[in-house]
Specification:
Length: 624
C-alpha cells in the first residue's frame, strides 16, 4: 500500500464513540489542532446497547463530564425521551439521574457538535497502524495509505477493535450493530507488543412496539419534575415516552436451561471475559436458579422508530431459542423481532500500563480511553475520553497533566481503580465504589469541578459565569435558611403533621429542615419570603443543610486521605533498593510506578506495612 503524508495534528483520536467524541471535543476546546477518526461516521456516539444515559454511579459521571466542559450532558438534555432520578427514596449520596435517549437523535446531536467545533476535523477513516519513533508515537496510518502525523494519539476503539460476534453456534468478525470491525489495528498493536486482552459484552434483541401487549406489563413513567443533566440548562421540557416492566417465568427458564449448550457462552465458543454486573439472561437463569423470575424493562429506542430494547435480557442464544424464550414473557407473546441479541468479543489493554493521566507508560504521547481500557458503559467511556483529551492537549503543549483524585470526582475513582487496581472483567461504575460518595453527589459536580475545568482552559466563560451564579444562589439560600427565624406558633402545624412535638422557642428554617421527613417544599407553609430559585439550587440547599453533619465528618476523612495522596513519589524510584518491603510489593510498585504514597497504598499486593516502610524511608531520605 502506497503511503502519503496528509495533515498534521496536535491530537489524533482513533474512534468517535462515547470516549472519542469527548476526547476530541476537549482537546479542540483547549486549543489543540485535533482529528477524530471513525471507521464509519454513522457510528459516531453509537448507543450499541441500552438507549439510556446515566444510572447509579453513571449519572454522577455525566454530571462531572458536564461540569468540566464536556458534551454528554448537553446532548442527552436535547435528546432524552424520559428522565428519572434513581434512588430518590435513599440518601442524596446515591441519588443518580438516568434518562432514556432517542438513539438516532443522540448520534446526530453529538456528530453535529463535532462538526461545529472549531479546531476539530471529523473524518471517516480506519487506522490500521500507528507511527512510532522509538518509544514515542508519531501519528496514524489509515487503510487508504494516508498518514496523519501527530504530537499525541488517543486510542478509543471500543468494541470495534478485533470485534467478533457470537450468536448460538455461529460466530463471525464484526463490530457492533453490523458495523465493520477494526482487525488490522488489532494485529498492529499486538505486533508492537502492547498487552492486549479479550473482553466481551452482550446485548438483547430488539422488537417492534406495535407487536407487544403493553396492557400485560407495568408502565413506568418519568419524573414530574426533571432536573437537567447539564448545569447549563435550568429546564429541559417534558417526558415523551414510558418504559414497561415485565418478568420472565418458569417457562422462560425452562426453555433456556433445556438449550443452555446452544448459547455461545455455555457452548464454549466465547473466550472473552464478560461484565459481572450485566450478565446475560442465560447466565442469570443458570447462576440464580433459585430465583423464580427476573425483571426486564421494555425501553423505546426513539420517537421516530417502533423498535424497543429488552433491557435485562442480553443473550448469545441462537435466534430460534431467543424467539421462544422472549415470547414466553407476558406482553411479548406475539413479539416481532427486528434485531437478534448477540455477544461481542473485542480487544482491550491492561490499564495497569497507564498513568493516571491515561498516557501509556511505555509509549510516550499515546493515550487510551473507554472500553479499550477495560471499562464498560457509555458514561465510563465518555469520562475517560474527556480526561484523555484534556491530557493529550496538555502534553501536546508541554503543560502539566490534569488528574482528579478519589475525593474530587467519580472520574477520579474510575481512573484510579483502572490504573492502580486493574481489571479482570469489564469495569462498571457504581456508587459503592466511591468511598467519598456523600461529597461526590450528582447535584454538586459543578461546585467541585468547574473551577478546575476553567483553570485548564476547557470550561467556557459562559459556563464559568453560570457556575458562579449558581454557587452564589446556593450560598445565599443556605444562609437565608440559617438566618430566618420561625416563631414556635408558626411552625406548630408543620411539626405536628410531621410527628414532632411543638417548639418551646424560636427556630431557624435550617433547623426545621434538618428534621427527618421535613422537606424543603414543606417549608413553604412557614416561609413567607420564598425566593424564585431553580429546582437545582433548592435541591442543593436542602442537601447541604440536611447532611451538614455527615459532610463535616466526610471532609475529615478526605483530609486524612489527601495527606497520603499529596506525598508524591518520584517516577523513577528504585523500589528494589528498599529493605523491609516484600518482594511482591517491590514488583508491583516497580510495575505500576505510583505517583503518590496514597496510590501505592491502593495497589493490590502492597500491604500497610510495606507503605509504612516506604514512608519511613522516604522521610529519612528527606523527600518531604
Ligand atoms: C453488543 C454490545 C453490548 C453492550 N452492552 C453493554 C452493557 O450491557 N452495559 C454497558 O454499560 N455497556 C455496554 N456496551 C458497551 C458500550 O457500548 C460501550 O461501553 C461504549 O460504547 C464504549 O464507548 P467507546 O467510546 O469506548 O467505544 P465505542 O462506542 O465502541 O466506539 C468506538 C469507536 O472507535 C471507532 N474505531 C475503532 N477502531 C477504529 C480504527 N482502527 N480506526 C478508526 N476508527 C476506529 C469506531 O468506529 C467507533 O466510532 C455494549 C456494547 C456492545 C457493542
Amino acid at each position: 500500500m502506497k503511503q502519503y503524508e496528509m495533515e498534521q495534528y496536535d491530537v489524533v483520536v482513533v474512534g468517535a464513540g462515547h470516549a472519542g467524541c469527548e476526547a476530541g471535543l476537549a482537546a479542540a476546546r483547549m486549543g489543540a489542532k485535533t482529528l477524530v477518526l471513525s471507521i464509519q461516521l454513522d457510528a459516531v456516539a453509537l448507543m450499541a446497547c441500552n438507549p439510556a444515559i446515566g444510572g447509579t454511579g453513571k449519572g454522577q459521571l455525566v454530571k462531572e463530564i458536564d461540569a468540566l466542559g464536556g458534551e454528554m450532558g448537553l446532548v442527552i438534555d436535547k435528546t432524552f425521551i424520559q428522565s428519572r432520578m434513581l434512588n430518590k427514596s435513599k440518601g442524596p449520596a446515591v441519588h443518580s439521574p438516568r434518562a432514556q435517549a432517542d438513539k438516532r437523535r443522540y448520534h446526530e446531536e453529538m456528530k453535529s457538535a463535532l462538526e461545529r467545533q472549531a479546531g476539530l476535523d471529523l473524518k471517516q477513516g480506519e487506522a490500521v497502524d500507528l507511527l512510532f519513533d522509538d518509544d514515542r508515537v508519531q501519528g496514524v496510518i489509515l487503510r487508504t495509505g494516508a498518514i496523519h502525523r501527530a504530537k499525541t494519539v488517543i486510542l478509543a476503539t471500543g468494541t470495534f477493535l478485533g470485534g467478533r460476534v457470537f450468536m448460538g453456534e455461529s460466530t463471525y468478525e464484526s463490530g457492533p450493530c453490523g458495523f465493520a470491525p477494526a482487525t488490522a489495528l488489532s494485529k498492529a498493536l499486538r505486533d508492537r507488543g502492547l498487552a492486549i486482552r479479550r473482553f466481551k459484552t452482550g446485548t438483547p434483541a430488539r422488537a417492534l412496539a406495535q407487536s407487544l401487549h403493553f396492557e400485560r406489563m407495568e408502565e413506568q413513567k418519568g419524573d414530574e419534575e426533571i432536573i437537567p443533566f447539564s448545569y447549563m440548562n435550568e429546564t429541559v421540557g417534558e417526558n415523551k415516552a414510558s418504559c414497561w416492566l415485565t418478568w420472565t417465568n418458569a417457562k422462560t427458564h425452562e426453555i433456556i436451561m433445556k438449550n443452555l449448550t446452544r448459547s455461545s457462552l455455555y457452548g464454549g465458543l466465547i473466550k472473552g471475559v464478560g461484565p459481572r454486573y450485566c450478565p446475560s439472561i442465560e447466565d442469570k437463569v443458570n447462576r440464580f436458579s433459585d430465583k423464580e423470575r427476573h425483571q426486564l424493562f421494555i425501553e423505546p429506542e426513539g420517537l421516530s422508530t417502533g423498535e424497543v430494547y429488552i433491557q435485562g435480557m442480553s443473550t448469545s442464544m441462537p435466534e430460534d431459542i431467543q424467539r421462544d424464550f422472549y415470547r414466553s414473557i407476558p406482553g411479548l407473546e406475539d413479539a416481532v423481532f427486528t434485531r437478534a441479541g448477540y455477544s461481542i468479543e473485542y480487544d482491550c489493554i491492561d490499564p495497569l500500563f497507564l498513568y493516571p493521566n491515561l498516557e501509556h507508560k511505555e509509549i510516550k504521547g499515546l493515550f487510551c480511553a473507554g472500553q479499550f481500557n477495560g471499562s464498560s458503559g457509555y458514561e465510563e467511556a465518555a469520562a475517560q475520553g474527556l480526561m484523555a483529551g484534556i491530557n493529550a492537549a496538555l502534553k501536546a503543549s508541554d503543560r502539566a497533566p490534569f488528574v482528579l483524585d478519589r475525593s474530587e470526582a467519580y472520574i477520579g475513582v474510575l481512573i484510579d481503580d483502572l490504573v492502580t487496581k486493574g481489571v479482570e472483567e469489564p469495569y462498571r461504575m457504581m456508587t459503592a465504589r466511591a468511598e467519598y460518595r456523600l461529597m461526590l453527589r450528582q447535584d454538586n459536580a459543578d461546585l467541585r469541578l468547574t473551577e478546575k475545568g476553567y483553570a485548564i482552559g476547557l470550561v467556557s466563560r459562559e459556563r464559568y459565569e453560570t457556575y458562579l451564579r449558581a454557587k452564589a444562589e446556593t450560598e445565599t439560600e443556605v444562609n437565608r435558611l440559617r438566618e430566618t427565624a420561625i416563631k414556635p406558633e408558626d411552625a406548630a402545624e408543620l411539626l405536628s403533621e410531621s410527628g414532632f412535638m411543638p417548639l418551646a422557642s424560636g427556630i431557624s428554617l435550617a433547623e426545621l429542615l434538618k428534621r427527618p421527613k421535613i422537606r424543603y417544599a414543606a417549608l413553604s407553609t412557614v416561609d413567607s419570603y420564598r425566593p424564585d430559585i431553580s429546582a437545582r439550587v433548592r435541591e442543593r440547599a436542602e442537601i447541604q443543610i440536611k447532611c451538614e453533619g455527615y459532610i463535616k465528618k466526610q471532609l475529615l476523612q478526605i483530609e486524612r486521605f489527601r495527606k497520603l495522596e499529596n506525598k508524591r513519589l518520584p517516577e523513577d524510584f528504585d523500589y528494589f533498593a528498599l529493605d523491609g518491603i516484600r518482594l511482591e510489593a517491590k514488583q508491583r510498585l516497580s510495575r505500576i510506578k505510583p505517583i503518590s504514597v496514597g496510590q501505592a497504598s491502593r495497589i493490590s499486593g502492597v500491604s500497610p506495612a510495606d507503605v509504612n516502610v516506604l514512608l519511613i524511608y522516604l522521610k529519612r531520605g528527606g523527600l518531604w
